[in-house]
């Protein structure tokens, strides 16, 4: 299940951090040149508190998204049989660490020949796809397909029972 993320906001925040880092680099360069000529080794960074708040705010967004993505995908994986481990896509945060920004779970969608087992498995697939609070397009598509397959299975059962009467 791919999670639709607001990459524009994160990208915008990354651009703002890059601008701030460039400004700090420029200030550092001027201070270094000044210290060489004036023998003054102190560096005074203007606006340091503002930059730290931005950095913390951006880092918190990365951590929050990482937790949301992992919780979302684990909720899917806990509800039905899967064919592979959870697959996460990652992005490097401003601190250099990797943070999950998307993920997917591959469900075992094979349908058993036993009608009772097939019905149970379709219920599991539907529940697992609908497990997280916010459903992605893929989540809702899988839940809908499982529901339709269950209706078809019930229709086949009813048709078989009707024909045997």
UniProtKB/TrEMBL annotation:
A Pfam short name: SprA-related
Entry superkingdom: Bacteria
Name used for this protein in its record: SprA-related family protein
Organism name: Poseidonibacter ostreae
């Amino acid at each position: 299940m791919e999670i639709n993320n607001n990459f524009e906001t994160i990208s915008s925040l990354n651009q703002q951090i890059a601008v701030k880092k460039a400004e700090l680099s420029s200030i550092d360069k001027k201070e270094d040149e000044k210290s060489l000529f004036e023998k003054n080794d102190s560096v005074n960074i203007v606006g340091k508190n503002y930059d730290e708040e931005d950095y913390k705010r951006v880092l918190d967004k990365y951590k929050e998204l990482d937790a949301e993505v992992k919780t979302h995908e684990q909720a899917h994986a806990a509800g039905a049989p899967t064919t592979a481990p959870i697959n996460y896509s990652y992005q490097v945060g401003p601190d250099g660490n990797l943070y999950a920004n998307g993920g997917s779970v591959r469900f075992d969608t094979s349908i058993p020949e036993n009608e009772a087992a097939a019905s149970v498995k379709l219920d599991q697939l539907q529940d697992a796809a609908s497990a997280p609070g916010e459903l992605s397009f893929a989540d809702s598509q899988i839940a809908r397909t499982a529901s339709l397959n269950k209706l078809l299975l019930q229709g086949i059962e009813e048709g078989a029972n009707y024909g045997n009467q």
